[in-house]
Request: fold
Amino acid sequence: MGAHHDDHHHAPDGRGRALRLGIGGPVGSGKTALVAALCRTLGPSLSLGVVTNDIYTTEDADFLRRAGVLDQERILAVETGCCPHTAIRDDIAANLDAVETLEHRFGPLDLVIVESGGDNLTATFSRGLADRQIFVLDVSGGDKVPRKGGPGVTTADLLVVNKTDLAPMVGADLGVMARDAAKVRGERPVLFTSIRQEPTAATVAEWVSDQVHAWSHTHASPVS
Amino acid sequence: MWPHPVLDDLADLIPSPHHPVALGAAAYAAGATPEEAALAAAYHAITGPATAAVRLLGLDPVAVHALLADLTPDLTAVAAQACLPTSGGWESLPAYSSPALDLLAEQHAQAEVRLFIS
Reply:
């Protein structure tokens, strides 16, 4: 941050605050279902907050509140009113304000999840908003999507391929998806899920839990 | 302001001019001074990469814009320096980065990972 600019946002090193996890991916791939699953599985052991992004509505926040997976007040909705990627990458102010509001009201939190509005394959979170990001694809979007790459598929900390139960019905080859993803992602992990069949999303929750513990270990509040 | 005979002449002579030539001609047609053209060139030189970095690298936009704001005095100084020998007017404005920027732009268009072409 420049020397002449006072800014109310947290210091970029993130010391003393919750891990911020961005969840992005195309429309309908299962982002909200994954957020619900993570709340269900991690809620009992972690202090959580959730920020949802929709274009003109509060649809995703309403869904999560109805699902009863988390105290309703811990779910805030941002209406992006434009391309969703703008609000998670180019102008992150509305989302940062929502994240900081949750931390102020309910902090200290362990994890704040920011769910992007559904977008295209180029959408990624600014490092100023998310410390880690998950990109969610689904098999019915076509098994060639991992091969197409794009920053979400190639650089997200975790790639989730959801709706594996639909693979036989849409003729998607999970082996092809796994191989193509590994080719563009190198060592970065990929997990296959069917949140409809396995509503706890246990493997993803375990990955997130590991990230939260690693974060709290390296970003504990300075001793004052 | 538009159309302008200078722009028409440029289009006739060089259909795809290098960026500094296009910028200089456009600034002249818009009624800008050489100092203002130099300032616009300097401004473009730092804001182009900065906005690309926010999109391609996911850098924190608040930090990036704070950095740009802090560079404002440097822009003014660079523009003033570019105009020191301006007894010659428009003709003596330097373009030290040309045609490097044009070549980099052509490379970018062929890059495997890119987000946009402009």
Q: What stands out?
A: Strands of chain A lie at 19-24, 48-54, 75-79, 111-115, 132-138, 158-162, 190-192. Chain A has nine helices and seven strands. Residues 110 and 157 of chain A are 18 Å apart (CA to CA).
